[in-house]
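Predict the 3D structure for this chain.
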Amino acid sequence: MTLKPWTFAGICLCVLIIGAFLGHMMAPKPQTNNKNKITVTVENGTSKINLSPQEQDVISWVDQADHPVQVRFLTDAPCQEIKKPADTTDTCTINTSSGNFQYLCAGSSKCVDPGVDPRSDTGLARLPPPGGLVPSTEGGSVVAIISCPDPNGAPVVTWVPDPPGSAVNVTENIVWKSGSLGFTVAGFNVQNTPVQLCSQPTVAQTQRTCTVVKDANQTPPYTVAYTVTTSGKNACGSTSPTLTVNPAPQPSTPAPQG
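Done. Predicted structure below.
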């Protein structure tokens, strides 16, 4: 049988199409990068580690046996699973792009250096604080938590660890955390006389560390009054607590040899 020219051309075209299809199916697939990027920050003033997720990331807490661990936030919570301040959760879907959040493990579980510091690629949270990094000092550090548990009440300041509660030492760093709240800490005074408490000129959401200094006209211990003012969506006004400034810790004397 003699093939007509157009019949032969059609067969060749079909062979080419089938060959191209098989070649595409058998070609190695391009490699995709499925690695997760995990960011942690070294906190100014304490040198502690904070996890820095992005919005919509999911955090799960488990123990070494893979059992869920419940956590409770001392600030407001960055989790869509948390509906009211007393709620606990073992899973947190991040629903904010910035803030500084402190939590504790609930029940018998213990957490060391807890903190969640959400940030976006372009948000304010990636900017360094004015004046650069504030290193951890020999005097140690405490964390002061600003929260609004009652939207109709005044802000509450709690301290971690507790004790020392609201007593601080000269040379110690106070790291203020407020979750998503904006805040300022100002008006330091002793019996209505202005004093210097911090080496930093301002203490606010963008500059959260206060390195305690001895006021030139005071002799520790002395009691300092100050004003915390909240701002932002869930703000609850201001409050005026006090703290006690103690002398700087004395260096320990090495034990004699021999």
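The helical segments are 5-26.
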